[in-house]
Write a structure and sequence with these properties.
The chain is of the alpha+beta class and about 500 residues long. About 50% of the residues lie in helices and about 15% in strands. Strands 3-2-1-6-5-4 form a six-stranded antiparallel beta sheet, covered by helices on one side. The protein has a five-stranded mixed beta sheet with strand order 8-10-11-13-12, with helices on one face. It is flat.
Length: about 500
């Protein structure tokens, strides 16, 4: 797992006569062992132990730094793709975003998404990533469906090739495509049909794609295939409804037929809604699995960094300590991002249980916890008495906790900090609010406040992952309410939320 050339140099200095690389056949291992048993023993003076440790730990530190650099872009691409899957309804915009995200996640230099025209059986390269605009424009020329290698299209299976001569036409790509030396393709499909193909070329960092890359590409294509099908059906339903409305306006005598068609459309919508719900569940399971799998390398990075720090001791230079600190903090930050993403996805899955929620009591408990955690801070806390709303107790506790911790964080640089929890009457409705006199924000960017991973302040100023307010908005929207904010730079911020009235009987 080290850098090969530096590792061989270090091994030679230590007197190693034979090196076996993994994986190795048993015959090769036995051959080397027999050769060593028959060799005369030649004494070799190894380098001093301090020099060996420096070289060995230097190789290990460099490899760990490289691993940390490769995990972060893949995590960012997966998070971005998951959010796109959850929010994008337009099938073509979805495929365009998927093309670039798949290239980053798998680690390829170029990516194309080709759509299959069912009428003439031609492939059209509609989306590209990793290429300049001129090359992308030349690629949108139709190719026969037999253009892919072998029987990949007819048998609906991924295709993986390596050690290619460079001519893109060998793998069925247009001649205008950049040179191809390694190739991976997977079908974008639903259980019923194939919609197109994802083609990845030239694996970054190695000579070819591996089985893990193939499996990951196949999972991503299966997910986007289902969502693309639902998006296409949604667009088809919208177009059908518009056509029916025009016919009703033109011909009154067609009302009965329109009623039957609308009934059929409602059945199709209900059926497809059920399929979409199942696809969303699979997507949530996929996001959880990916996030869970990413935790393992993060734990390895954190653990090995701690071991390195302990082993180095006084041998560590300031630069080494700085690199170790960067690796440790990056691993911790990525771990928190994963946890926040999972918390955000759980909000949508919780069943609402309505009851009377004592906001004043909950706010008092949260602020007491914050004061105990930061006893050096003097914060004036004003809580309106007997403030109650109807909603899910656990979800509203999560929302209020995020709002108060947000206010606590952004008032930390003010010597006279003040946090207020109250309610006000607006147009005959009771609106609750959390107000602080902290750093505030520019109202020009108020629309970014509740976006996932959106930050209006740098992490150097105020730590955090930018997910707290997104969770608050998700909780309020689950209740059918609305939330908005007002503030100014260095003038504090006020977050208002309004919950609809519900029956007083507890669920």
């Amino acid at each position: 797992t080290y850098l090969e050339s530096e590792t061989r140099t270090l091994a030679t200095q230590c007197g190693v006569s034979h090196m076996i690389t993994k994986p190795a056949e048993p015959e090769k291992i036995l051959q080397v062992v027999n050769e060593v048993l028959g060799m005369p023993q030649t004494p070799v003076t190894p380098p001093p132990i301090e020099e060996f440790r420096r070289n060995h730990l230097g190789l290990l530190l460099t490899k760990l730094a490289q691993k940390a650099e490769t995990v972060a872009p893949r995590l960012d691409a997966m998070i971005e793709l998951g959010l796109q899957f959850a929010s994008e309804r337009d099938p073509h915009r979805l495929l365009g975003s998927f093309c670039g995200a798949a290239r980053k996640i798998v680690g390829a230099r170029h990516a194309t998404v080709a759509l299959l025209d069912r009428e003439n059986g031609m492939l059209h390269h509609r989306f590209t990533s990793g290429m300049n605009p001129e090359t992308s424009a030349r690629l949108d020329s139709p190719l026969p469906r037999v253009a892919l290698p072998g029987n990949a299209l007819s048998e609906q299976h991924p295709c993986r090739l390596h050690a290619l001569p460079g001519d893109p036409r060998v793998v069925g790509l247009p001649g205008e495509h950049p040179p191809v030396h390694s190739f991976l393709s997977a079908p974008i499909s639903s259980p019923d049909r194939i919609y197109g193909w994802l083609c990845l070329t030239n694996k970054l960092g190695t000579s070819g794609f591996n089985e893990e890359d193939e499996g990951l590409a196949q999972i991503l294509c299966a997910q986007v295939g289902r969502i693309y099908e639902n998006g296409s059906l949604y667009s088809e339903i919208q177009r059908t409804v518009q056509r029916l409305e025009a016919e009703v306006a033109e011909r009154k005598q067609a009302q009965e037929e329109v009623r039957k068609l609308n009934a059929e459309l409602e059945r199709r919508v209900a059926r497809r809604t059920g399929e979409l719900a199942a696809a969303n569940k699979e997507l949530e399971a996929f996001s959880y699995s990916v996030s869970h799998d990413l935790r393992t390398p993060l734990r390895h990075i954190a653990g090995y960094t701690g071991i390195l720090s302990a082993e180095l001791g006084s041998l560590a230079t300031p630069e080494t300590r700085r690199l170790l600190d960067i690796i440790s903090k990056s691993a911790g930050h990525m771990g928190q991002l994963i946890e926040d993403l999972l918390n955000l996805s759980r909000i949508n899955r919780r069943e609402l249980r309505y009851s009377t929620v004592p906001l004043s009591e909950i706010a008092r408990g949260i602020l007491n916890e914050l004061k105990q955690a930061s006893p050096h801070r003097e914060v004036e806390c004003v809580i309106a008495p007997d403030l109650r709303v109807r909603g899910d107790l656990n979800l509203l506790r999560i929302a209020l906790d995020n709002l108060l911790r947000n206010a606590w964080k952004f008032t930390q640089k003010h010597p006279l900090s003040r946090i207020e929890v109250g309610a006000a009457e607006q147009e005959g409705e009771t609106v609750c609010f959390v107000r602080d006199n902290g750093a505030g924000f520019d109202m020009a960017y108020v629309n970014k406040l509740f976006g996932a991973f959106q930050r209006l302040h740098s992490e150097a100023e105020f730590e955090g992952t930018g997910i707290g307010l997104a969770i608050v908005q998700r909780v309020i929207l689950r209740h059918g309410g609305r939330i908005w904010a007002e503030g100014g730079v260095d003038e504090g911020a006020t977050f208002y939320f309004l919950l609809p009235k519900t029956p007083d009987t507890d669920a």
